[in-house]
Structures are given as structure tokens and as C-alpha cells.
Amino acid sequence: MKWDVMDVKPEKHLRLLIAFSDGTSGRVTFCDDHLTGVFAPLKNPEFFSKVFIDHGAVAWPGDIDLAPDAMYREIREKGKCVLG
């Protein structure tokens, strides 16, 4: 699918640079207060840097993942995505 993530790189803490299969790319920034529950481990910079791609989605160890379609739409429309 066009919104499958092909590359993900952690930049500074709580920010990722993401590239999608259709060539769209942009930054995703997480708001610290949004990181609760299952997403709480992402507050740890060392854990956050362990980001990887799992079947076209952004993921971290422990079955933490983000659906790429919403990030893709926001990056296409605004050039960036803020989660929170």
C-alpha cells in the first residue's frame, strides 16, 4: 500500500523521520503527555531509539506499533504529523 513505511529513523527524542512506499516522507513528533498506557515506554530515549518497521508499520519491542495510514494522510496534507 502507498502508506507502508519503508524507512524510519529516530531523530531527536520523540521525533521520527519516516518514508513511505510512494516516496512521501516527513517527520512525526510525539507529545510527551500523549505517551500513556502502552505508549509510556516511548518516553525513555533509549527505548524510543529502538524503533523498527514491522509489516509496513512503525513499531517498537513489546508489540507497540502505530498504524501508518493516519500518519501518511497528515504528512501528505501538512508535511508533518504531531501525535498528541
Structural descriptors:
single chain, 84 residues, alpha+beta, NE0471 N-terminal domain-like, 4-stranded mixed sheet, 3-stranded antiparallel sheet, 2 helices
Summarize the structure.
This protein has helices spanning 45-48, 68-78; strands spanning 5-10, 15-20, 25-30, 52-54, 57-60, 64-66, 80-83. It is α+β, with helices and mostly antiparallel strands and 84 residues long. The chain has a single domain, classed as NE0471 N-terminal domain-like, CATH 3.30.2020.
Query: Helical content, roughly?
Result: 10-25%
Query: Any idea what the radius of gyration is?
Result: 12 Å
Number of strands: 7
Order of helices and strands: EEEHEEEHE
Helical/strand content category: alpha+beta
- The top-level CATH class is Alpha Beta
Average pLDDT taken over every residue: 94
Largest sheet: 4 strands, mixed
Query: What is the spatial order of strands in the main beta sheet?
Result: 1-2-3-7
What is the CATH third-level topology name? NE0471 N-terminal domain-like
CATH level 4 superfamily? NE0471-like N-terminal domain
Whole-Å distance between the termini?
Answer: 25 Å
Question: Could you tell me the strand content as a percent range?
Answer: 35-45%
